[in-house]
Amino acid sequence: MTFLSVAFAALAAVPAVQDAEPRAWTIQAERIYTGTGRNLEKGLVVVSAGKIAAVTVGADEQSDHPKDSLRAYAVTAGLVDAGVRVTNWFSVEQSKEVTPQLRVADTLDPYALDWERQLRGGVTTVLASPIDRNVIGGLSVVLKTAGPESIAARTLKADAVLRGSMGSDPSAGNHPAFGRPTDFYSRRPTTRMGVEWEWRNAFFNTALGLNEKDPGRATLMAALQGKLPVFVQAWTTQDIRTAVFLREEVQSRPEFAAAGMNTPRFVIDAGAEAWKEPQLLARSQTAVVLPPFPAGGRTRENALMAWNVAKILADEGVPFALSSHGSGDVDQRLSNQAGYAMAGGLTFEQALAAVTSTPAKLLGVESRVGTLEVGKDADLVLWSGEPFQPGARVVATIVDGVLRYEGWNAVQGAAVAR
Amino acid sequence: MTTTMMRATCAATLTASFLALSPEARAGDGRLAIRVGRIITNAGPDIENGTIVIEGGRITSVGADAKGSWDAEVIDRPELVAFPGWVEAHSTRGMDRPNENIEVAPFLDVRDSIDPISFYFEDCLRQGVLAINVQQGSLCAVGAQGRVVKPFGLTIEDMTLRPSSGLKIAAARPGRSRALQAQSVRRAFRDLRQHLEKLVQDKKDGKDTARREALFQGRDLDKEENKKGRAMEGSAPWKVANLETIPRGEIDEKQEPLLRLVEGKMMAFVACDGAVAVTQALEISRENGFLANTVLVLDGDAWKAADRIAEAGVPVVLGPQLLYVERDPLTGKEIETFVPGVFREKKVRFALQSLNPTAQSLWFQAATCVGYGIPRDEAIAAATKVPAEILRLGDRLGSLEKGKDGNVLLLNGDPLAVTTSVQYVVLDGNLVYDRSKDVRVQQILEGVEQPNASPADADDPADIDPHSGEKKSKSDKKKD
User: What pLDDT score was predicted for residue B431?
Assistant: First the structure.
């Protein structure tokens, strides 16, 4: 195998180029963290036809296919990131503030390097969303980070959520026109008020039937009826409140009840300050996707993100997922975020859930991914040590039964024993 | 906690700035016995249920059966782990500004720029970094003299472990051609040589301009070390003949630190932003005879010159990004290279640098090395013993052994685990940090906002480029 020697010479890690046919793998590990509460020591995960065929205690009996056997310290399900920012600047149509009907899947590039970066960090399923330069940007897609060379073939769930934003992002770059408008960006919204007004305008117009000709109407209806979850970016307390109160307004106003559009489901994305009023989120049963932990305590929008934010949400019973926002940096990957949440008081099992099963549930793909159970997709991460510790790393990633990434060690060469 | 411990705790302060130190806490002449569940000595096997005895600021014994004197204060925490402090081999933080606008300024000293109440040093203490080599940033040709400091003390003198730790030299400088930068650095040494030759010639000609200039600059020419002349020392291939005719006090103080470098009495920390710069750095070091005192501070793809570095035999301080990512021009794929692995294979001594002072400090970098297959003791050494040796403080720092400085971290777990934090810091035998009283930890960890505890408007520590010391340009920043 040529790629073997090339990669070793450069002490490098390259994605394993395998034939796309899923193989029958037997993975032996000291620890198997299934994510179902049942963890195994010295066990096996057997993969067949792209699905998990068995998760058992015991060693590999003499296999006829030694090449298809892998060993690692630990195995978990493939990680799920519900907040990656892998999309490019052309992922949102900025000629209008509200474009719910646009599908981000149409602008994604299967050849982009972002997907491989995610694979190297053990992330196998992501929610890709339009960037937050529109108030309501469009429809996000849940997809695998590896697979055939088309977005459609990698899609796990098309049009999975409606994506929008509170705060200052959607109005960034716009400027009020004092006198004669000077350019395209002399327009609303220019403030947080304006951003929220666009949300309410879109929702009320839909409930009152004032946007019959709007191509986004059907999408907004599905969102208001609760058929389509709404992911709202809201970093700070004031933006989280705005989102929660908007939803409560929809639930309580007679206009929405009369139209049967009073049951929207909201998920707060990048809720850095969710720890400040966790009861508010618990009361309104709103889930949260947390942004990466900041080194200096403050995130974008100058939000203060305490390191025990995940612990507080767990204690209050607020469902939450962690996210790396798509970073491939060795200190900022999704696995690192789980470790930082543990430093803030989360248990390992809680941290594991926050990067696997919980985001899978939030995205409605829990029947396919998120845990190691027989019949689920064979998305596996092999670790060199205890997962989420900086002293352990992802040594191999399998997606749908195909070995898509194999790491190389600085010292011993291959990081995975065969 | 015992009552004697309480007294020590009261005497200790969270930050140098907030509380005045009581006299007994400063002198380092107290006797302290630290009993813990595990001592990671970093010099041989770990000791279970051992004691570290510190007297007069130094460790006097370490072992399972070590005993302090009858009047020693006792810290008895069987649930904690003792570990020597981490050592930061190079940092451009902790100063009021990282760079000067003078290109050649070896006469400057970061002593005048270090801010003892900078949040940076507070972060170092919190993360257990107990020695920091503060150096000017790389926006210079020949920069100021650095200084190794402790992260605790009201004045620079209190903090100092080693003054004049070395000169910063920049083999490359952002926004400037490599040719021009190389010329600037070389010119600094040529100017030194010409200055010395002129002094010798003037002395021969009977002129006393240098003496008068020295008196004008306020130097005391009657002082013993200034009075005498001395032939030029060091291994530089060029020599100024008859330098012994010049009283050392008559040498221009702007040139004198550079002469110390050439004479082998000062170290150089040479910033290399890539492999090309390594060549320049090694050439200039050889041309002026200070290769043996050179430490390369690396960034970018400088690891590609690992063979040349190994051949030159100089140690390196690695840039904070341990994983170098580049694109293969043929396949377009990304290739990752784990930089410490390259230097380990080439048998080059390397020290790690923190990624940032607040969260991904030296412990994180060492842990990352373990993740990529470097043996644990070597990974830890790269942030303790190796930097201590590079800074010529190997006899004082880096391990818990008899005779070393009385610096001990008390941790609540394995030093490389993400869930571990520094509970107490003993520095020179004094308890100087207690996590339970750290208001900023309460803010970072629990969101409890405290007055004066956080520089809310300060730059994000992750936004500082550790090489130049300046804020990263917008395009360098991460997406979020």
Answer: 95
Minimum-distance CB partner of B444 among A276, A307, A388: A307
Q: The domain at B3-84+400-437 falls in which architecture?
A: Roll (2.30)
Q: Which residue has the higher pLDDT, B401 or A18?
A: B401
3-state SS class at B261: helix
Using a CB-CB cut-off of 8 Å, the residues of chain B touching A389 are 367, 371, 416-418
**How far are the Cα atoms of B130, B304, B391, B395, B427 from residue B150, in angstroms, in the given order?**
5, 33, 13, 16, 9
Closest chain A C-alpha to B443 CA, distance in angstroms:
7
Query: Which CATH class for the A2-77+374-414 domain?
Result: mainly beta
- Strands of the sheet containing B294-298, edge to edge, are B142-145, B167-170, B268-272, B294-298, B316-317, B350-351
Domain ranges of chain B: 3-84+400-437, 87-177+265-397, 184-253
Fold matches, B3-84+400-437 and B87-177+265-397: no
User: How many residues are given for chain B?
Assistant: 480
Helices assigned H by DSSP within B23-118: 23-27
CB-closest option in A10, A295, A385 to B360:
A295
* Contact with chain A for residue B119, Cβ under 8 A: no
- CATH class, domain A80-362, is alpha beta
Q: Are strands A408-409 and A413-414 parallel, antiparallel or unpaired?
A: antiparallel
Q: Give Cα separations from A250 to A98, A229, A236, B135 (angstroms).
A: 18, 14, 21, 58
Number of H helices, E strands in chain A: 12, 18
ipTM: 0.91
Between B358, B374, B445, which is nearest A296 by CB?
Answer: B358
- The answer to whether B449 contacts chain A (CB < 8 Å) is yes
Cβ within 8 Å of B, A 367-386: 384-385
Interface mutation vs chain A, best among B362, B446, B457, most A CBs within 10 Å: B446
Decide: A77 and A123 in contact? Cβ < 8 Å. no
**Alpha-carbon distance A131 to A208, whole Å?**
29
Rounded to 10 deg, the angle between the A192-208 and A237-252 helix axes is 20
Give buried/exposed letters for B55-68 (b at 16+ CB in 10 A, else e).
bebbbbbbeeebeb
In words, the CATH class of domain B87-177+265-397 is alpha beta
- What does the pLDDT profile of chain B (480 residues) look like in tens digits? 344 444 444 334 333 333 333 334 444 567 999 999 999 999 999 999 999 999 999 999 999 999 888 889 999 999 999 999 999 999 999 999 999 899 999 999 999 999 999 989 999 999 999 999 999 999 999 999 999 999 999 999 999 999 999 999 999 998 899 999 999 999 999 999 999 999 999 999 999 999 999 999 888 899 888 899 999 999 999 999 999 999 999 999 999 999 999 999 999 999 999 999 999 999 999 999 999 999 999 999 999 999 999 999 999 999 999 999 999 999 988 999 999 999 999 999 999 999 999 899 999 999 999 999 999 999 999 999 999 999 999 999 999 999 999 999 999 999 999 999 999 999 999 999 999 999 888 877 777 776 666 555 556 677 788 888 888 765 554 444
CA dihedral of residues A145, A150, A156, A161 (deg, nearest 10): 90
B128: phi > 0 → left, psi -120 to 50 → alpha, else beta; which? left
Where do the domains of chain A lie?
2-77+374-414, 80-362
Mutate to test the interface with B, among A109, A322, A382, A389 (most CBs of B within 10 A): A389
